[in-house]
Amino acid sequence: MTIRCLVVDDDDFTRVTLSSALRAEGFTVIAAEKNAADAMGAAHGVELDVAVLDLDLGRGPTGIDLAYGLRRLNAQLGIVLLTSFSDPRLLTASSRQLPPGGTYLVKQSLTDIRMLSTAVDGAARWMEIEPVPGSRVDMTDAQIETLRLLAYGLTNTEIARARTVSVKSVEKTLRTLSGQLGLDRESGSNLRIALAREYFRLIGSLRNDHVPR
After folding, report:
1. Domain residue ranges in the chain
2. Are 36 and 61 in contact (CB under 8 A)?
3. What is the reported pTM?
4. pLDDT digit string (tens) for 165-194?
5. Which pLDDT value is given to residue 144?
6. Measuring CA to CA, how many Å separate 172 from each of 1, 20, 29, 151?
7. Residue 2, class by beta-carbon neighbours within 10 Å (0-12 exposed, 13-18 middle, 19+ buried)?
8. Which CATH number fits domain 141-202: 1.10.3470, 1.10.10, 1.10.760, 3.40.1620?
């Protein structure tokens, strides 16, 4: 029996392209939706094997939040999170890990549609195979949140206020990050620009076209 998929992505072009690619690989796309509410509605009363979800669905629930909601409807549903974010914490510090058996795919790492096809095949059998660890960058939650806020233009004082820590704590975190990322030779505004560029590289975009939650 063909694998029945639900596709959720808030970008119209990506959603249509992804649906077409999955159909070309022999999968059945039952529904393709742009947000969590529509996806939950589409999932009611239908037989689904795998949900292919974007992480960033705009305002409201994330793809991970949606994954948990879909699993409440169907405990055996396979989950593939296909996203430009190399770590879900880069979107929001409160991001949960994927539900058990979920597969995390970074779009930039996909060089062939067969890689996605393999992930969907595996997700449909997630209860039978060894779980694959989720994607995480080598940073603490505090470091990621500090980097995210800096990338969106907040000053050290504003970052400290948002994180309810001292300015000295923020400065220490930035120094540690600059060392970890090999940016410790930069100084002043150049360092802040370099750190911001590193954040946007990690989320798959060097353009400041996201807004912080």
Report:
1. 4-124, 141-202
2. yes
3. 0.70
4. 999 999 999 989 888 888 877 666 788 888
5. 85
6. 56, 48, 49, 17
7. exposed
8. 1.10.10
